Amino acid sequence: MVVIRGATTIEHDDKDEIRKAVRELLEQIESRNGIKESEIVSIVFSSTSDIHSYYPAKAAREAGFESCSLFSAMEPEIDGGLNLCIRVMMFIEKNVEPHHVYLRGARVLRKDLTAKINVAIDGPAGSGKSTIAKALSRDYKILYLDTGAMYRACALKALNEGADVEDEAALCDLMRELSLAIEYVDGVQHTILDGKDVSEEIRSPRVSMAASTVSKYPCVRMKMVEKQREIAGKMSCVLDGRDIGSYVLPDAEFKFFLTASPEVRARRRYDELVAKGYEVDFEELKREIERRDLQDSTREFSPLRKADDAVVIDTSEMSIDEVLKEIKKTMQEKI
Ligand code: DC
């Protein structure tokens, strides 16, 4: 006996959509595995708890799967799981190498079966990029690359060496001897500068401003962009930054541009820094964010810019969950 697995998603909890999606999924499983209906022993469905309008098993019966046993069950709600998703296990009496079939939004469940996807999330500081990118990478089980951390590491290098961050020639020299590695421990990015884990050190407000300054220079950017493209070229990942959709990965499958009012962004950064034990003045932080925004968006080479085909989301009045839902909905519609 061989088990073939599959899944698909629907857009609304609607009887006809369920029928159509189930038929399509079963037909695809049959055709991709060269199965005849008489070889199917049973089909077991499970659907997410937001699907009530129809039993997938009933839809299968109507689609002509009459001789095998059919069963449907509802899954408990899982935080961060896919919405409106129907999964299937088909047991067949035939000795074949199974081809599992994941359609529509459910393609993200099996990165191994689908093409590589890159998700670009750009936007100014405090727009929610990293929180959302981390959550997406966790839910879709793909890598998260925080590109800001790379520019921060360059800035820290300059500060440690006592270099003037406004001195382009000195920075270009420093870049030649930069040893920067991005490593992952339990899915969490660690930024290693000259052999030392600087993941926390690069978060200080001093480094934030310096990162914005050093990232103006083409010699810094080119070096970082090359690394980013190399990582994104090898595997599915979510990258957050300023120019991912517009410059680093213009062909990324998904592009989002997050924004929020300066007040809200400053408040988020303030809360984040205070929680980490930094002493910060809210008004000063707000001014710093505004200075960074200006510098990041007016630099000559590859500035902070929305890609023409990016989906813009203003997160000012939205919870993390709401932003995440909207992004996933957009992705599921497009896949
Ligand atoms: O996202 P962040 O705050 O960690 O980024 C720090 C700085 O790095 C930001 O002010 C501008 C720069 N940066 C960039 O120029 N391009 C990127 N892709 C990411 C960050």
Structure notes:
- The strands form 3 sheets. The protein has a 5-stranded mixed beta sheet, covered by helices on one side.
- It has 2 domains: 2-114, 60s Ribosomal Protein L30, Chain: A; 118-334, 3-Layer(aba) Sandwich (Rossmann fold), CATH 3.40.50.300.
- Helix 2 (56-62) links the parallel strand 2 (40-47) and strand 3.
- Helix 1 packs across helix 2 and helix 4 (147-160) crosses helix 6 (205-214).
- With 335 residues, the chain is α/β, with parallel strands linked by helices.
- It is 41% helix and 21% strand.
- The structure holds 2'-deoxycytidine-5'-monophosphate.
- 2'-deoxycytidine-5'-monophosphate binds at residues 125, 147-148, 151-152, 208, 211-212, 215, 241-244, 292, 296.
Helix and strand layout, with pairings?
Elements: E1 2-9, H1 15-33, E2 40-47, H2 56-62, E3 69-74, E4 85-92, E5 101-102, E6 118-122, H3 129-139, E7 143-146, H4 147-160, H5 168-176, E8 180-185, E9 188-193, E10 196-197, H6 205-214, H7 218-234, E11 237-241, H8 244-248, E12 254-259, H9 262-275, H10 282-298, E13 311-314, H11 320-334
Parallel strand pairs: 1-5, 2-3, 6-11, 6-12, 7-11, 12-13
Antiparallel strand pairs: 1-4, 2-4, 8-9, 9-10
Helix pairs in contact: 1-2, 3-11, 4-6, 4-7, 6-10, 9-10
The protein binds 2'-deoxycytidine-5'-monophosphate (DC).
2'-deoxycytidine-5'-monophosphate (DC) binds at residues 125, 147-148, 151-152, 208, 211-212, 215, 241-244, 292, 296.
Can you give keywords for this protein?
335 residues; alpha/beta; 60s Ribosomal Protein L30, Chain: A; Rossmann fold; five-stranded mixed sheet; five-stranded parallel sheet; 13 strands; elongated; binds 2'-deoxycytidine-5'-monophosphate
